From TrEMBL:
The protein's name: ROK family protein
Family named by the database record: Belongs to the ROK (NagC/XylR) family.
InterPro entries, alphabetized: ATPase_NBD, ROK
PANTHER family: N-ACETYLMANNOSAMINE KINASE, ROK (REPRESSOR, ORF, KINASE) FAMILY
Length: 315
């Protein structure tokens, strides 16, 4: 059996694991992402993390064929370059991600591949997670931001400019307050992410007049659970916006299955029920039986999907 190292490079932490040809994470390690120190420092730290895993794999007699990376930012998967990123990782834009890692690890350039982290997440779920065995799947993740990926025949659809999957950045009728569109972190306004992300739910609670001293969406969910009317409204509005957005995307893409992921999906019924209700209300008649499933792999999904970039199930 062949093995690969999958790397999940996020804004706050970088996790990597040795993944088998059947999608099992054998062992993994995590380090903080040096998100204020620039691309070279991040590549140095990531290479050190991967090197540690390569040593462990070699000691266990495992044949590692390459390294796959799921990274924050818009990743030009053809060149392995970060073409766009937020300030969550300073100095990340322009980083030669795959070439830089390959050089530091002494690997052939083709042995290191990279995509955006949500694409890696979706690829993991389509391989061994909730969408395993399907020919197509739409994954949408709702957490600090909103992202998605459409996996078709085992490959995430990346888009002509590798920006595919930015499903948080189209218009939502829910993202308005007093007749004005709610500002979005992308610089636009009235977008799905501006109303359906975790921070957006907290902002909606404040905007609607909530006066309890809560710092984030988790606090708003706690208040909703204690029957706070404004918190219930903020959660319900965010969940409905999420569901309507996913339903609309499903109408366009007609996936075999929808997988919903991210921190908000882990909140359980108070978020999931209104989300799925709004999703199903949006579907065309031909899609009424569409399976809508929670993600299965948790924090391992992006590692598994990243490894899949360089790994086949042949053994």
């Amino acid at each position: 059996m062949m093995y690969a190292i999958g790397v999940d490079l996020g804004g706050t932490k970088t996790a990597a694991g040795v993944v088998s040809g059947d999608g099992e994470v054998l062992f993994s390690e995590t380090v903080p992402t040096l998100n204020r120190d620039g691309g070279d420092a991040i590549l140095d730290a990531t290479a050190a993390l991967v090197s540690s895993l390569l040593v462990r794999a070699q000691a266990a007699g495992l044949d590692v064929v390459g390294v796959g990376v799921g990274s924050a930012g818009v990743i030009d998967a053809g060149r392995g370059v970060v073409v766009s990123a937020t300030d969550a990782i300073l100095g990340w834009v322009g980083t030669e991600l795959t070439a830089g890692l390959a050089a530091r690890l002494g690997l052939a350039p083709e042995a290191v591949q990279a995509v955006n982290d949500v694409h890696a997440h979706a690829l993991g779920e389509s391989w061994t997670g909730s969408a395993a065995g399907t020919s197509s799947s739409l994954l949408v993740a709702f957490g600090t931001g909103v992202g998605g990926s459409f996996v078709l025949a085992g490959h995430p659809v990346l888009g002509h400019r590798y920006a595919g999957g930015h499903v948080g950045h189209f218009a939502s009728p829910y993202a308005f307050h007093e007749g004005k569109p709610v500002p979005c972190v992308c610089g636009g306004a009235g977008h799905v992410e501006a109303i359906a992300s975790g921070p957006a739910i907290h902002e909606a609670y404040v905007r609607l007049g909530g006066n309890e001293p809560v710092m984030d969406a988790r606090g708003v969910f706690a208040l909703a659970g204690a029957s706070d009317a404004i918190a219930i409204q903020a959660v319900g509005m965010g969940a409905a916006a999420a569901g309507q957005a996913v339903g609309g995307l499903a109408n366009i893409l007609d996936p075999e299955v929808v997988v919903v992921s991210g921190g908000l999906s882990d909140a359980g019924a108070p978020w999931w029920r209104p989300m799925e209700r709004a999703l199903r209300a949006e579907l065309l008649p031909a899609l009424l039986g569409l399976p809508v499933l929670p993600a299965k792999l948790g924090n391992a999904a992006a590692m598994v999907g990243a490894a899949r970039l360089v790994l086949t199930t042949d053994s």
